[in-house]
Amino acid sequence: MALNLDLLSMGNYGIYVWFAYSAAAIILFSLLYISIRKWRQIRAQGEILEAELTHKIGKAE
Amino acid sequence: MKKYANPARFNRLATKLIPWLAWPAGLCISLGIFLGLFNSPPDYQQGETVRIMYIHVPSAWMALFIYTTMSIACASGLVWKHPLAHISARAAAPIGACFTFLCLLTGSLWGKPMWGAWWVWDARLTSVLILFFLYLGFIALHHAFDDPARGERSAAVLAIVGIINVPIIKFSVDWWNTLHQPASVLKLSGPEIHSTMLYPLLIMATGFMLYFSVILILRMRTLMLERRIRIMRINNIYQTATTEKN
Amino acid sequence: MTRKRRRFYFLISCMITLCIAAALVLTAIEDKITFFYSPTDLVLKKNMPRAQQIRIGGLVKRDSWKKPFNGLTHKFIITDLQYDILVSFKGIIPDIFREGQGVVVLGRLTENGVFQASEVLAKHDERYMPPEVADALKQSGKWEGNKVKQ
After folding, report:
1. Domain C35-139: what homologous superfamily?
2. Per-residue pLDDT tens digits for B2-26
3. Which of B48, B215, B219 sits opposite A11 (nearest CB)?
4. How distant is the Cα of B220 from the closest Cα of chain C, in angstroms?
5. How many CB atoms neighbour CB B148 within 10 A?
6. For C99-148, what is the HEC assignment?
7. Domain residue spans of chain A
């Protein structure tokens, strides 16, 4: 337990170090998440549009 | 290069490429975090706060690298009109902005315990803050016009003009008196940083670079499909209008 | 000349103009950009601002730091190895403040030649190494000491 506390406190600078690493994790994960979500949205839109257009062409023929 | 401007082809390439980049990115960043937090020595001067360096310095490198590539892409977009140029710049900007923000934030968290201040208006910090605003301005300009092509062009001009800030950031610590230290790694006389600290730093930098390429490809593919959908919609409306007329 | 080539040369000439303009502006406002002056500047420069607070930076001279015994007032000498300035500061000093280390203080030169500081910031150099390595270097006499940037 003592060892764990040492690790966390990092000579009383722990708060700065841990905050920096968590901020990095949050920012990088959010950017990844937003980018993937946006891609899925656009891909779904594209599929819907594609389906509409083929349907329309089918009817026209 | 031009053939990848085709969204379908780019999409196939992206699907193949992303796993090859994403797994090493995750691996490098996890390893970097582990080494940085638990398996590297404290600094003789700065103690344990030196661990912030493993986030701060690679973020700063990425912020500068992404801006430089973005300006070059914008310049080639304006001069040679390559279809992928503006899309790649637009896709890169938010990633660059994130890294710049991370650099400023971790710098602040490092400055407080070491220097004794969260923020000072010295040449290095101020010029990096300007870099952050350049990224934000670039993103905002893309949305400022109804005509996407106009937004693209004005954002490109901003990106090109802003490139002047990159050498200012890099050399600010040599040209003027700053509170920020001079370069430790990228200097002519070789790194002034012990190898036990240099390895985690370089691993983290590699991880950030791979992360950047994954997100860049992902965003470029999104933007290309978005543009294609827009064109398809316009064509569709046009076609419907003409068929109804007949 | 093709249109692409013309656009390319136009871009290059714009960039050159931009660089020159930036260089001129930065040279003109050099005094505003610098974060701190050296003790030499303070002693030799005629047009140093006397009314408002300024920042002085240099090294904390060895064996000059008088730790407060009366309460809070620290006294130490800032040197750039040419001129020394005696600084007096009331407050809490950053953790890495040490003799022989870089420091930047904000304040004003008083009548009696003492620099009255209201803020002390520690400046560290660009060297990073584990404590053991630093000790070994010091013992073997390979320690270069602090380089003063001027």
Report:
1. Nucleic acid-binding proteins (2.40.50.140)
2. 566 677 788 888 889 999 999 999 9
3. B48
4. 25
5. 15
6. CCCEEEEEEEECCCCEEEEEEEEEECCCCECCHHHHHHHHHCCCCCCCCC
7. 15-60
